[in-house]
Specification:
Blueprint (H helix, E strand, L loop, with lengths): L7 E5 L4 H12 L3 E6 L5 H4 L6 E5 L7 H13 L4 E4 L14 H33 L2 E6 L12 H21 L4 E8 L8 H4 L2 H10 L8 H12 L10 E4 L8
Parallel strand pairs: 1-2, 1-4, 2-3, 4-5, 5-6, 6-7
Helix pairs in contact: 1-8, 3-4, 4-5
Length: 251
């Protein structure tokens, strides 16, 4: 029996990187998964042939996205045990030069869309928790929720927002046996970072910064999300799980 046997999970940002690895790992651990990503992504092909994974092409920041995603999961699987909000965007711009459009895009995807999907899914999660004794919300933040770097004002603000949102969800939903936790990845080699980390001079710097002397891989974060989604996390809520290979041990 897998660690998620008999459960239904929604995973966003599931066409590549952390989201794709998480959708596959959750399915391997017994879950039925609705994998969500933008229509123009590889969502229609990356999970082809995996019977436990259904796919949905939708921009999570769209006005009707939360209703479409939750309705699709309920129509396909009948319930929701786990909501894993992983989708996110990044980018760099100094505050002095940052446009409103840039700020809004990063925060719309990274925080507002997450909030709206949580809000839409809560009734289904409550119903499942009443039936089975538990349900889960897992969100992806970043070590930039508490650290920073040049040009990352919008990104850092959004990821700090993920932390605040998740902690409040944990407080509000605990009495319904719904836990809410968030994963903080460090330097991860994924589609979002590949361009930079494929440059040896950049890769070597970030590998040296980590105590484990390597970049993280999407599966490393997926395993952290799996822990928080599993029954083993019954008494863990409002928690910030840093999965960074020791990147932030030094100031």
């Amino acid at each position: 029996m897998g660690r998620l046997a008999g459960k239904v999970a929604i995973v966003t940002g599931a066409a590549s990187g952390i989201g794709a690895a998480s959708a596959k790992l959750f399915a391997e651990e017994g879950a039925q998964v609705l994998a969500v990503d933008r229509p123009e992504s590889a969502i229609d092909t990356v999970h082809a042939g995996h019977a436990a994974i259904a796919v949905l092409g939708v921009d999570i920041s769209g006005d009707d996205a939360p209703k479409r995603i939750v309705a699709a999961a309920l129509a396909k699987f009948g319930t929701i045990d786990i909501l894993y909000n992983n989708a996110g965007v990044s980018g760099r711009a100094f505050v002095e030069e940052m446009t409103d459009e840039f700020w809004d895009r990063v925060n719309d995807v990274n925080v507002r869309a997450m909030f709206r999907l949580c809000r839409e899914a809560i009734p289904a999660l409550k119903a499942r928790a009443k039936e089975k004794g538990r349900a889960r919300i897992v969100n992806t933040a970043s070590v930039m929720a508490f650290d920073t770097d040049y040009g990352l004002a919008a990104y850092c603000a959004s990821k700090a927002g993920v932390g605040g949102l998740t902690r409040t969800l944990a407080l509000e939903l605990g009495k319904f046996n719904i836990t809410a936790n968030y994963v903080c990845p460090g330097a991860i080699y994924s589609g979002m970072t590949q361009t930079n980390f494929d440059k040896p001079e950049i890769r070597e710097v970030w590998e040296k910064k980590a105590a484990l002397r390597r970049l993280g891989q999407p599966i490393d974060i997926a395993r952290g999300a799996l822990l928080l989604a599993s029954d083993e996390a019954d008494f863990i809520t409002g928690h910030e799980l840093v999965v960074d290979g020791g990147l932030t041990l030094r100031t």
